[in-house]
Amino acid sequence: MDYAQLEDREVVSLACEGRQRAFRELLTRYEKPVFSLVFRMVRDRERAEDVAQEAFVKAFNAIDTYDPRYKFSSWLFKIANNLAIDRLRKRELDTVSIHGAPDARSNEDEERTSITLPSTGESPEEYVENRELGGQIEDAMGRLRPEYRTAVLLRHVEGHTYDEVAEIMDVPLGTVKTYIHRGRAELKEMLAGAVA
Questions:
Q1: What is the pLDDT of the chain when averaged over all its residues?
Q2: What does DSSP assign to residue 123?
Q3: Residue 161: φ, ψ to 5°
Q4: What is the pLDDT of residues 131-175, one digit of tens each?
Q5: How many other CB atoms sit within 10 Å of the CB of residue 64?
Q6: Are 12 and 66 in contact (CB under 8 A)?
Q7: CA 87 to chain centre
Q8: Model confidence at 42: pLDDT above 90
Q9: Which of 81, 23, 74 lies closest to 51, judged by CA?
C-alpha cells in the first residue's frame, strides 16, 4: 500500500490501528509545516524543534481523539500552537520572526558575517532601509499579546483562512477577527511610533 497516495483521514485511520508506516507518513507530511509554524512563534531553532517534537508526540498519543470531520492539519497545528503559546506564556521565549526561515541566524551571527546584497534590484540604501523595517516589524510582532501574534501569523504569514485560524486556535470566528484587527492596529501604532 502506498501511504503517500492516501488522504490524511485514511492515514490517520491506519495510525489508529497501530501501523507505524502511517505515523511515519503523517510525520513526513507535517514535520516541516509544524516546525515552520512553531519557529515563527518562538524564533529559536532548538526550542522550536523541541516544541514540534512534543506536538507530534502529543498528537500521536491522542490520535484516537482526532475527529475526522475536521482537517487533520488544523488539529495538529492547534496542538503545536497551544504548546508554543504555553512556552511563550512561561516567558521562556519572547520573540517572533515573521520570516520563519528555519535557518535564520541570530543578530550576533549576522554581525560576524559579511553582508552580501541579494540581487533584488534594490540599491544598498533601499536594502538597508528594508532590513531595518523588517527588524522593526519583527520587534513589534514580538511585543503583541500571544493570541494576537498567533492570529496574525496564521492569517498573514502562513496564509490560513479565518475559519482555519479559528479552528487552529480553538476560538470563535468573531474572536479571530477581533484578534487580527487589534493585532494589526497595535502593529500599526507601534510601527508609527518607531518611524516618528
A1: 81
A2: -
A3: -70, 165
A4: 676 677 777 887 888 889 889 988 988 888 999 999 989 899 999
A5: 8
A6: yes
A7: 13
A8: no
A9: 81
Handedness of CA 62, 67, 70, 71 (dihedral sign): positive
Residue 32 CB neighbours (<10 A)? 11
Q: Please provide residue 144's backbone torsions phi and psi, each rounded to the nearest 5 degrees.
A: -70, 155
Return the domain boundaries, the chain: 3-195
User: For domain 3-195, which architecture applies?
Assistant: Orthogonal Bundle (1.10)
Q: What confidence score (pLDDT) does residue 101 get?
A: 45
Distances from the Cα of 21 to the Cα of 5, 55, 66, 113, 135, angstroms = 13, 19, 18, 43, 42
Grid coordinates 522550536 are at which residue? 48
How many whole angstroms separate alpha carbon 36 and alpha carbon 23? 20
**Amino acid identity, position 195:** V
Of 109, 93, 103, give the one whose Cα is nearest residue 42.
Answer: 93
Q: Which of 87, 70, 35, 85 is nearest to 56 (CA)?
A: 35
Q: Which three cell numbers stand for residue 104?
A: 535564520
Amino acid at 6: L
